[in-house]
Amino acid sequence: MKTVAVLVGSLRRESLNRKFAESLAKLASGRLTFRFVEIGDLPLYNEDLWASPPEAVLRLKRDIEAADAVLFVTPEYNRSFSPALKNAIDWASRPWGQNSWAGKPAAIIGTSPGATGGSAGQNALKGLLSVVDTILMGQPEVYFTYRPDLFDAQNNIVDLSTKAFLSGWIDRFAAWIARMAPSRISTQDEAA
Question: 23: closest CA among 110, 141, 129, 104?
Fold first, then answer.
């Protein structure tokens, strides 16, 4: 089963995007394994810190490199994605020649209580992810309007049409990863 590094751009305790990502992880069970990557403890990007890189930065790079793919779950902040995601993307793309994102299958998803479901934030993130060399899934896009009645207290999706829709998205993402992520076994066999 393929492993997905999940980066949630909202750091607040009651984040809708965190809850949404946890719901997706439960729904993906048996198809994909979601591993949530901590980004809230990263210092602001500063090239000088590479002289003695913070452990949080090294952990971020390890977590991404160990995954078969990456899922960016972003809120929309001022018609863009969150500064927490930008900071994590910058750290993992450096130092030069050690870009942890390179060649990783990726997808973007997010939610907001507004009618457009965070579409501007997701669209702003697309350009950056192509620059850092992720292999971004273009379709289907999900601009999800968050409504508490669609979920139970444990973040399970209880609305059947929502569950079917998001399950279809997970199937497409799993297929994208399978097509784009080289098999670890075959890569190891080739190296032998």
Answer: 110
